[in-house]
């Protein structure tokens, strides 16, 4: 009887501790930064995205809704440059133009993971790596030759993320940014062909290819096995 009582007491203690042992670390937020390169498409470069690549730095804050969906706020600082002398086409005036600028961008994106992303919670079949797609809206500001400007943009693209540990994420993301302006490359290139700008014509684009490192924090649920 003493042995049976001891075994029963041990079993009760084990069952009482099981929820704690089975609990998974699940975090609401992710914060980090990254560095990378930029490309430009516009009046000074109409075909080759990385003809004159430049740099970018990103700060990011991400809300982790679930293993498939994230919502990211980003702040970018980067460089853009172009030279119409690189093109085979000539402007009507036969002049060449070049520019360089530093841009600042804030954006809000929704990200969809192709696989359920994470470590632990085996019943959810989580993977520690996944490709994903992203899209959203942003605001870009710049200054070229003393002329400042700002315009809305639509960032969209693809990425890949990998989780080397429970709270650390490594990512590589490529985004195209369509701007609603023809002035990103400066006043000299606002309308060199004499064609009125429209939504899909004669507006400037740029891209960011960024490697990021981020860290998750704020536990969602410390003693249970489901998301609230």
Which segments are poorly predicted (pLDDT under 50) over 5 or more consecutive residues? 4-24
Cα shape: elongated
Euclidean distance between termini CA atoms: 44 Å
Q: Numbering strands along the chain, what is their spatial order in the largest sheet? A: 1-2-3-4-5-6-7-8
Overview of the structural elements:
- The protein is mainly beta and 228 residues long.
- The protein contains one helix and eight strands.
- It has one helix spanning 2-22; strands at residues 27-41, 54-64, 69-83, 98-113, 129-144, 147-162, 168-179, 205-219.
- Strands 1-2-3-4-5-6-7-8 form an eight-stranded antiparallel beta barrel.
Break the fold down into its secondary structure elements and pairings.
Elements: H1 2-22, E1 27-41, E2 54-64, E3 69-83, E4 98-113, E5 129-144, E6 147-162, E7 168-179, E8 205-219
Antiparallel strand pairs: 1-2, 1-8, 2-3, 3-4, 4-5, 5-6, 6-7, 7-8
Task: Sum this structure up briefly.
By secondary structure, the protein is mainly beta. The protein has one helix spanning 2-22, and strands at 27-41, 54-64, 69-83, 98-113, 129-144, 147-162, 168-179, 205-219.
Please tag this protein with its features:
single chain; 228 residues; mainly beta; eight-stranded antiparallel barrel; 1 helix; 9% helix; 51% strand; elongated
